[in-house]
Amino acid sequence: MSKQNKLEQICKSRLLLGNPYAYVAGDNGELEAAPMISIQEIRGSTNPSPKYTANQIEVIARSFQTKLWQKRKSLFGSEDVNPIAVTDVGTAFEAIGFELESKTTLGENNANDVIGYIDTTHKIAAISQRHPNTVQRFTAAHELGHALLHNANGLHRERPHSTGTTCVRPSSELEADQFASSFLMPRKILIDQFRGRFKTEKFSLSDENIYGLFGAIRKSKVPTGRDLSLHLAIATRFHENKFRSLTDTFGLSKSAIAIRLEQLGIA
Fold this sequence. Notes:
267 residues; two-stranded antiparallel ribbon; 9 strands; globular
């Protein structure tokens, strides 16, 4: 970023914050725009935890989105915005003073395709354009998780070239995935969206629900478990009601939606 652009960013930050002295000294001693929301404030500590539980990650994601909502007028230009706006990853990165970049490719690492990258020292995150928008969106939120949960420098999110390849992932990667899921599909918002479509907070395989979801189908053919969750993720009608699928509403893959539905005990 050029010096002129930095000055413009500082001025913008001061206006948004209503503070003519809103700036911090960067690592090189130059003035940088102060973030709207402090990472330390979100996770409640200057230093990251050596290990997070799923509940702790859920609390951090919810705390961050509460602050995004409180600052929605500055971030989105209006207080009259849809609550789902707090899942916008680009705005979230901007709020903590990071730049989110989209690259044609991020290269490879050990024969794996690098799809995401985070550098907290220089406050930059990048995602690869080589994958579907649903993957890019989840990857961006995954990197946001690293920014908030870890002191992440040079961490990569990778995807094996072969679909059959498996590997043991570090706990920090699993934590970042959990954060992405919690951030992109907040508990209350997802439950509200689910209830609006299926008129329940937990989908049961009653005869009425089976008919509403599948029509005149024999119960022996009704999917259960993960197959049912996947179907609920992509469903566009229930009884006579038609609607946007959860996958389209949240901009995520059916697998990501299905896993989150199961985590929350909805499906």
